[in-house]
Design goal:
77 residues
Amino acid sequence: MSVTQTVEVPPDRRLVVDVPREVPTGPVVLTFTPMKAPGDAEGRPPPIKERGFGCAKGQFRISEDFDEPLEDFKDYM
């Protein structure tokens, strides 16, 4: 029996593979075949663009009363 499953290798290089129920338990042979990524001819992914300071400016708003005491905690103050 042969089963093919495509997985992404994370930076910590630990894999969790879900094995289909039809695969019998016992010893198995895993074969790793690197796939070419869309990044370059070597199969490396494109470099991650570094985010600069302030790149999320204007995407979040904080209410005017953010620092005011909460009603729920009045008993403790």
